[in-house]
Amino acid sequence: MTAGVDKPTIAIVDDDLSTAQLVQDMISTERFDFQTFALGSDLLMSARLDSFNFIFLELSLPDIEGFEIIEMLADKKLRATFIVISGYDYAVVRAAKLYGKSFGLNMGRAPARVNVVVA
């Protein structure tokens, strides 16, 4: 990228650091800036929350469930694209995607190369 031009930013919210690293490895790290959060509350308190272009969200976190995070982020009217990543059954992940859409969030798809259950 040209000097002085900000790269798109990606937040990865997952308490399993190996999964967060896998997601990051599957995406060109030269084109994006990444920030990883092990807790949902850390994402919610991030000073950069409004600047994320993409948020990869694990549904099962130690502090706040993903569905609750979806509600909180919808209240903030974020324009990021949300991508649900989870080891939960496909039906649960699909429900999370529909839940986010019901709040008006931009719920996207993970790249096909990401080796996790995605909506």
Care to describe what's here?
The chain has 119 residues and is an alpha/beta fold. The chain has helices at residues 17-26, 40-44, 66-75, 90-102, and strands at residues 9-13, 33-37, 54-58, 81-86, 106-107, 117-118. Residues 112-119 have low confidence and may be disordered. It has one domain: Response regulator (Rossmann fold), CATH 3.40.50.2300.
State the helical fraction. 25-40%
**And the CATH topology?**
Rossmann fold
Give the overall pLDDT as a whole number. 86
Which shape, going by the Cα principal axes? globular
Structural class: alpha/beta
**CATH homologous superfamily identity:** Response regulator
Q: Number of folding domains?
A: 1
Largest beta-sheet characterization = 6 strands, mixed
Number of strands: 6
CATH architecture: 3-Layer(aba) Sandwich
Name the helix and strand elements from N-terminus to C-terminus, one letter apiece: EHEHEHEHEE
Cα-atom radius of gyration: 13 Å
Query: Termini, distance in Å?
Result: 31 Å
Low-confidence stretches: 112-119
CATH class: Alpha Beta
Q: Strand share of the residues?
A: 15-25%
Total count of helical runs of at least 4 residues: 4
